[in-house]
Design goal:
This protein is mainly alpha-helical. It has 13 helices and no strands. 67% of the residues lie in helices and 0% in strands. The longest helix has 31 residues, at 184-214. The radius of gyration is 21 Å and the shape is globular.
Length: 324
């Protein structure tokens, strides 16, 4: 009788692969960009002149773009939560300097630069109520998030594959819109962040590919489960001071109006992952795996029809974060 391997056994088996992925998809620290290279240095004689340029450029940014930028920054800054849930996955031994912990710490170290750079930009741009911004950030870290993965590494890697692609889209489009309004500093920051997210997405997609090789049915069921639950963004519990709990919906509406991240993008990411993991042509699945695959292959068209019927949100919410 062939017993299916446990999640812990699979994670142990592919741990050397995680070590290789870390080498392939994370950059040496000495070669990475740092936030201090992108924004004015306080000791520079031209510091105040450079800050004035940032503030003048920021005046051209739309209210919706500033709203999305703040929401994206808070999402990036809530990094302690994300490292905690990744290191809590089944099959991860946090006391051992193994491939998985090297990946998680290395990924965290690269991601940490994103929030630092964006936070400093918001502080300098002159359009943000920093206390309100910081309050929302503290709320998000204190509240945590519920991304429906539990401690299951299979579900977590589906989630991170999807989410890294989504953040790439949002930051990349922010960079494009900022460039169109002659905000070249913000455009450069967001472009560099987006490039990091692309590398990270490739790594997580590779983890899923590897698990499909050794435990295809269970990986397929995890993929189905996550898509039935729907992939939510890490800042789903985002709120403003006073405990308002509809902030994420208002943030999402602003992103939808701008075309920064839309329902169509969600469908496109799903199609990308189905192609990447060759779901349609995967063979040798058991009955439950076959049913899961059939559900997944039919899902993009169904979601596309829903997206086409959705109305564009028109009301522009006024966030506590933004001064003007």
């Amino acid at each position: 009788m062939n017993l299916k391997p446990s999640r812990e056994e699979v994670m142990l088996e592919i741990e050397p692969f995680a070590a290789q992925i870390t080498k392939d998809f994370l950059k040496p620290i000495e070669e990475n960009w740092q936030p201090s290279e992108l924004l004015p240095e306080s000791q520079s004689e031209s510091f105040f002149d450079e800050v004035k340029i940032i503030q003048q450029q920021a005046e051209n940014l739309s209210y919706d773009l500033i709203s999305v930028l703040v929401g994206n920054t808070i999402t990036e800054e809530a990094l302690p939560t994300y490292e905690m849930w990744l290191s809590g996955m089944n099959g991860i031994n946090v006391e051992v300097n193994n491939g998985w912990m090297k990946w998680i710490r290395g990924w965290t170290a690269e991601e940490n630069r994103h929030g630092d750079a964006l936070n400093r930009y918001l502080y300098l741009c002159g359009r943000i109520n920093m206390k309100e911004f910081e309050t929302s950030l503290q709320y998000l870290i204190a509240d945590g998030t519920d991304i429906q993965t539990g401690t299951d590494p299979y579900k977590n890697f589906i989630y991170t594959s999807f989410q890294e692609l989504a953040t790439n889209i949002s930051h990349r489009r922010t960079a494009s819109i900022a460039k169109q309004s002659d905000n070249l500093i913000l455009s450069k920051i967001c472009g560099l962040v987006a490039a990091d997210e692309t590398r990270h997405a490739k790594a997580y997609k590779n983890f899923v590919t590897k698990i499909f090789e050794v435990d295809a049915d269970e990986m397929m069921l995890a993929f189905e489960y996550m898509m039935r639950q729907k992939i939510v963004m890490p800042a789903v519990l985002l709120r403003e001071s006073g405990g308002k709990n509809d902030t994420f919906a208002n943030f999402s509406d602003a992103a939808q109006r701008l075309g920064m991240y839309t329902a169509n993008d969600y469908v496109d990411i799903l199609r990308t992952l189905l192609d990447e993991w060759q779901i349609e042509t995967m063979r040798g699945l058991k009955e439950n795996g076959e049913k899961a695959r059939d559900y997944l292959m039919a899902l993009p068209d169904r979601l596309q029809r829903i997206a086409e019927r959705a109305k564009m949100p028109e009301v522009e919410h006024k966030f506590n974060w933004i001064l003007s």
